[in-house]
Every structure is written in C-alpha cells, then in structure tokens.
Amino acid sequence: MKISKITIGCDHAGYELKCKVIEHLKERGIEPIDVGTHSTASCDYPAIAHAVCKNIQDGVTELGILICGTGIGMSMAANKHRGIRAAACSDTFSARLTRTHNDANILCFGERVVGMGLALDLVDNFIDADFEGGKHQRRVDMITAIETEEMKNG
Length: 154
Ligand code: RB5
Fold this sequence. Notes:
Blueprint: E1 5-10, H1 15-27, E2 31-34, H2 45-57, E3 64-68, H3 72-78, E4 86-88, H4 92-100, E5 106-110, H5 116-128, H6 135-153
Parallel strand pairs: 1-2, 1-3, 3-5, 4-5
Helix pairs in contact: 1-5, 2-3, 4-5
The chain binds D-ribose.
C-alpha cells in the first residue's frame, strides 16, 4: 500500500527496536507518528495499543505498528478495538499475507523474538502489500459481523 505516514507504538520491551523501525520508516520517506513509550522504563502495553488503535479508528493513519516483548500482548489488546485487525508476525510470509488476505491494519512483533533485520523486513512486507479483496473481503466482512454482534451483546 502506498502510505505517507504510519502510527507506531511500543512498550519498554520494544523500545530499542521501535527506534530502529522509526529510522527505517524515515529512510523510506514514511512519516512515523510515534505515540510512545519513549524510554525503556516499564509501562503497560495495553495503553500504547489503545493509542495506536485510536489513531487508526480516527483516520489519522491507515496502518499501525506495535512492538512489545513478543508482539502477543499488543495484538490481544489491539484486537479488542472495533475495526482493528492486528496480526502478531515473526515471518515475512505472514506479514505480507496478513495484508493481502486478512486486510490487517496493525502489524505486531516482539523485540525479544525477532532481530532488527527481520523486523525491518516484516515492516516492508506488511507496508508494501495490498489487500486482494474478493473472497477475502467476504471473510473479513464475517469477522466484522462477529465483532458487531459481540459488541451488541456485550
Ligand atoms: C513485558 O515484560 C512483556 O510482557 C510485554 O512486552 C509483552 O511481551 C506482552 O505480551
């Protein structure tokens, strides 16, 4: 997808890697909108996931990146938000396919899981892929229908 900016956030366990990803995005001419955290001091990942999701829900950016120790807590928190499809990935095939098939709007990964080289490849695969629509749109619509029904019952 051709994007000019992307929202990015991390907790303390993802801070060092987030700094590298931000540099990489800038080199690619993509403006990173950094919602924190801004140091390795301990913080709670759900708050950061919420901030990234709000930016996407508000239309500030179409896509987001969340980094924690594993990428898992961030994805769990992000997927509680309406309209958010967050994928925790640690291989480039999944990072690409979660855009082309799942129309994921947030990529999550873990600084304690992936190295810097792989992390930057995950980002590139995610950003450069486009949703294919068609039968995949029908399945994404089914996810949205489940979300709507669950919220109504909640
Ligand atoms: C922080 O210690 C760690 O639990 C967090 O970064 C993340 O990996 C949670 O899923």
